[in-house]
Amino acid sequence: MNTALSPAAAVPTLADPDTPFAVVDVHKTLRNIERLARRAGRLGVTLRPHVKTAKSLDVAALLNGGAPCPVTVSTLAEAEAFADGGYTDITYAVGIDAHKLPRVIALLRRGVALRVLLDSREQAAFVTEAAHEAGLTIPAQIEIDCDGHRGGLKADAPALVDIGRVLHEAGCLDGVLAHAGESYFAYTPENQRLAAENERDTAVAAAERLRAAGLPVGTVSVGSTPTAHAAEDLTGVTELRAGNYVFFDLVMAGLGVCRVEDLALSVVVTVIGHRPEYGWIITDGGWMALSRDRGTSVQAQDQGYGLVLDLAGKPIPGLVMTGASQEHGTLTARDAADLPNLPVGTRLRILPNHACATAAQHRSYHVVDSTRPTDHAPAIRANWERISGW
Amino acid sequence: MNTALSPAAAVPTLADPDTPFAVVDVHKTLRNIERLARRAGRLGVTLRPHVKTAKSLDVAALLNGGAPCPVTVSTLAEAEAFADGGYTDITYAVGIDAHKLPRVIALLRRGVALRVLLDSREQAAFVTEAAHEAGLTIPAQIEIDCDGHRGGLKADAPALVDIGRVLHEAGCLDGVLAHAGESYFAYTPENQRLAAENERDTAVAAAERLRAAGLPVGTVSVGSTPTAHAAEDLTGVTELRAGNYVFFDLVMAGLGVCRVEDLALSVVVTVIGHRPEYGWIITDGGWMALSRDRGTSVQAQDQGYGLVLDLAGKPIPGLVMTGASQEHGTLTARDAADLPNLPVGTRLRILPNHACATAAQHRSYHVVDSTRPTDHAPAIRANWERISGW
Lengths: 390, 390
Fold this sequence. Notes:
The structure is a homodimer.
Chain A: E1 21-25, H1 26-43, E2 46-47, H2 57-60, E3 71-73, H3 76-84, E4 89-95, H4 101-109, E5 113-118, H5 121-134, E6 140-144, H6 158-169, E7 173-178, H7 189-212, E8 219-222, H8 225-230, E9 239-240, H9 250-255, E10 265-275, E11 280-283, H10 287-290, E12 306-310, E13 315-324, E14 329-333, E15 347-351, H11 355-359, E16 364-368, E17 382-385
Parallel strand pairs in A: 1-16, 2-9, 3-4, 4-5, 5-6, 6-7, 7-8, 8-9
Antiparallel strand pairs in A: 1-10, 10-11, 10-15, 11-14, 12-13, 12-15, 13-14, 16-17
Helix pairs in contact in A: 5-6
């Protein structure tokens, strides 16, 4: 642990490292992980967590009792770090670029079953050509668009079967993958359930079209944190993906996918000033520590840059981080009369809008365990490094 | 240089590293640096650049022909890295927290003239107490609020003279500091000029109040990128601060402080897909590479997540990055009929809204020089590391 400890402290606590810094509650993380693992078990599908949120081998070790499991990654840097950590079943869920194929091939040669994603004839051509030249197969999934969110082919797109055939003839066709990205804007349980049904139906329809053309489809992969928690029937699907759920965040709480008390990631900040004439408390945690993500700004309850807890993790009702510059945060009370008395030096924890974005602002996490409650500063039980870069 | 080069390339170019990555144009950076240095010279003040934007000793080496110069920092990690680089005249321009004083004292003991900032009696008390205990002086500046942007005392606040006296009696009173943060929303040259006048007037008034009470004020520090470029007379001011100007960005171009062609920071991305039915080009550069900052969203011309250049640096008229998920960017044309033909694999450069926030998403910069024009991929002349963390 690379933290400066106060001389008297036998065990480091959240009062010890200089602020701002990121904190992960291992108990809440485990509870979130177990909740979705149980769901996947009931639904009869493999869970393939997306490690882009935590980007940490230590957090990933909670997924499967310390043993490697299937994972999804958002960068080849993650794929390489997880391969180094013994993970051998990895899906790289961003459309493949030809320039990145040497690193993909290097991972395949190390024995990692690394799947790539594509949605165009051009990509199918350069992937199969590179596979041929390298004398191996590059397992590829065809991205299916289920809700107009981002990339992918519609399940009835003419190109789907052509691409499937090119991949199959090179031994590279692994399956199809869909992501209901628009479910982040599905504000009711019913709409989340419908988004999950649509995600499944679209992925399965694409797989059936390929099969009807004589093309074998192994993997039918779906998932997003909202739909993974809303799906009631995944018939035809082989695997479920979700990433954010390990930590959750205020966007997910606003959608009702989790409760605020499930949020496992927070940022510790210190009060450095007061502007009573404006109703502001100033902290040393700005957008560099929280990110510029304001995902809740489009939700019914805008949570600013985040909700405020005391250092022990207890919410301070009505206190919101409403402003951010690079290294300054501004806290205000929803009811101005209620601005609490928090002297200079007081440490607080901020619950973020978007865990993926906030975590990305930090190199590591200090780890606490909320099953060991304290009125004071929780003990730091470990420091977990993040993977960064591409 | 830690980049994978294509085997045929004698010199690495922007076509070589895997995307996304950050690029700094050393020529534009130098031109921006020289422009403000000339202004400061004409105005008769010391320039103390804020290194929080680039966070790079290599970029800082451009400020003064390779020799250390006075700098401003936003974190103690920057102060420590710059001290290691031989910089001995540093202002830490975020309100001081008592917990951070051991690192401040360690820097002072290394011979670094490190100034701290404060705006409360509590901070003055713990700073002077720590100085007394350590047997040294901690030079402190009193933060003055000139526009209600963030922290600081009004120039006529009763506490100002009390705090000044406490600091002076401990030998710690260095001066006053003001930052016209609201100038980022001053949309005309006249309003920027008025913001600069107000910033100067407020800082000088605070200094004069302290002097009238018999308290010696050495430093009268003002600055922000817009006011530093708008100030016409800095009588009474001793030093000027600005940070963003080394790179500039679309927010500053939108304010008219610079031209789009002055922007020295961009992010290289690759086209990975197309959704012609939506008018979208999909790239592998999302908010992880650009940040979530959307500063231009409140300006007359919203520039989305950024404007698009070809790899050689030539603008692609009307093409804007309008959407971002973690590792995906969406480009659209302002006039949908004009969506250019950019095949999968095409590399592009994105000019960001906010250079400080975009740069913070990267560990290093690849460096090009636009005075050596090319129709192809510019040569990479160096790789410059960034300072990160707190």
